Task: structure prediction
Amino acid sequence: MPSRRSFLRSFLRPFPAAVVLAALAGGPLATGAVQAQETPTVFAAASLTNAFQDIGRLYKEKTGNDVAFSFAASSALARQLEAGAPAAIFASADAKWMDYTEAKDLTLKATRVTPIGNSLVLIMPADTAKAVTLDPNFDWLAFLGADGRIATGLTDSVPAGIYAKAALTSLGAWEKVRPRIVGAESARAALALVERGEAFAGIVYSTDAAIAKNVTVVATFPAGSHPSVEYPFEIVKGQDNTATRAFFNFLTGPEAKAVYAKYGFVVK
Result:
């Protein structure tokens, strides 16, 4: 028969060192030391990229804890959650996709907060920019010329594109402009098309335009022409633990709000 020492070695070998130490010490397997290693992953709308990265750095400086981010269109992130992608927090660029994850029982409605908003703007490459007034009398076809295109998010799924379609419809221009729309996978992707001069104009968020190079805001869409641009945040189901809750609260605290304001978000 094997000795007691060799039996213990063979029994303990498959387990992680932290678990083994906890067991030998007579404590619970899920120790605080193991939990402290958890790093929350935040799924966030692409337009939050710069602000959230800054907030993540501030959080690291303040607490010593890391946070991981995945940025994309809210629609893509919601579908990734539905497919089982691991995340702790979802920050959407509109209410629709947060409602979607709630309906699918993917996020916790009780944790929902909407701390910031944004505005929708028309942009052009800086070297061709010309100020315009957006109202029902604006001649979009004359503005675009023979072959000008407008870049925005995909109008059936990406929040920026959904807002853009609503605004153009409200102004009586959607049917005229629809053939000229270039749908991109996110607001940031649409912005890039205008930055590179591959689109005559773009409809994006004001915060994205503010950090872009070689782009000028030529008009802001009237607030009443589209649903309010809002950013709801929720904790993902099954992830409401100490690490997640700490960063979730930080996202709506005074230091985070200062970052949002710096980037031009409307802080509520």
Notes: The first helix runs from residue 4 to 12. DSSP finds 13 helices and eleven strands in the chain. Confidence is low (pLDDT under 50) at residues 1-37.
